[in-house]
């Protein structure tokens, strides 16, 4: 089967992935309206990633990687710094 034979969004999916993925998505979701969240990762992962990868100078790089604003990265860092230590 050729991807050109697929309709609309399935043709686009096949172009980005492959025909088998487009067919699988058709079988899972045909007839449904789907809205994809703007964020790919959950909040816990984002916080952990920022904490583990922040080096004191790379807010801009983190914001671009995670599709967050520089301001939001700083807010998350400040929240983590101000978080009470559970060991005390």
Task: Describe the protein in words.
Helices cover 59% and strands 0% of the residues. 7% of the residues are buried. It is an all-alpha fold. The protein has helices spanning 8-16, 19-29, 43-53, 59-66, 70-82. The chain has five helices and no strands. It folds into two domains: 1-36, no CATH class; 43-82. The termini are far apart.
Structure keywords:
59% helix; 0% strand; single chain; 88 residues; mainly alpha
Query: What profile does the largest beta sheet have?
Result: none
The general outline is: elongated
Portion in helices: 55-70%
Please tell me the overall pLDDT: 89
Task: Give the N-to-C terminal Cα separation.
Answer: 64 Å
Number of helices: 5
Which percent band covers the strand fraction? Answer: under 5%
- Cα radius of gyration in angstroms: 20 Å
Helix-strand string: HHHHH
Number of strands: 0
Structural class by SSE content: mainly alpha
Low-confidence stretches: none
How many domains, in number, for the residues?
2
Furnish the topology, listing elements before pairings.
Layout: H1 8-16, H2 19-29, H3 43-53, H4 59-66, H5 70-82
